[in-house]
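User: Fold this; tokens only.

Assistant: Input:
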Amino acid sequence: MRVNLSSHIPSSVRILALTAASALLLLIAVVVTAEQATAQPSMCDGPGSSLVYCDERPGEENPSGGGSGGASGGGGNEEPPCNVEALQTQWPGATDWFCEGQNACWWNNPPAGVEPSEYPEPPSENAGDYVYKYCVGPNGDIVFEDYTWTNLPTEPPLEEQAQIAFGQLNAPAFELAFSPPEESVIYIDTWWWAEGAPSGNLEGSSAFGLVAIAQPDHMEVDPGDGSDIITCDFVTSESDECTYAYERASGDGGYPARARLVYDVSFEDDGAPIDIPGAPDTFESPWQETAVPVTEVQSNVVR
């Protein structure tokens, strides 16, 4: 025998149950919709002509299908051109990130803890959104951390720009050459020079219009026999301007001599010299090593 239980439930109870079920379905729909909305990286749709790449995580497909408002290269499976890992180490909860050149950035839009009535006067009619923005450079150092308007290019402080420009300097490849070329002799000068190194200035690429220039200053040579490092003129061709006389013969394989080039650093802003307190003022190449066999010459007196 089948029993229709609904006929035994008062209509008021049935209506209450249906109302509760409808409310539950509505709540689920709201939660799902909210999750879908927050899953979209909002910055991919944000303004800013400097946006190069945006995604939730490196290697994951971009649910918004790439950037807009001047963004390029926004495919979700492309390798980001900036160090996103450094950014996410400092902000592990940040899902909205993008690259500005080599800087990895994240912003909060709208900025938490600031009411719209507290926003400063926009600098222009098309100022965009007012956000909290945070950027780190390739080495993980903070290069921007402030409130700003989204469509304005933001630059780090001048001293940080100098650090970035300094990082664009590349040391030249060279070989530590010596003469006599095959074997040195004790108590006779050995000549040193940096074979292959350019004798002129080094110039890095621009960072916000700032360029670091390295001017040759001197060369440091470690003879490898336990003596002190000697400081010589900046020598790139064979000459007697940088010399050292060994006092003991070497064993098999020779002495592990090494040298590095040292430069004075200055900066130019759009071609004009600029003094930046606290900026690096010396650039050093890596040490280059070479083996120097040293022999002792014996003489016989014939009567």
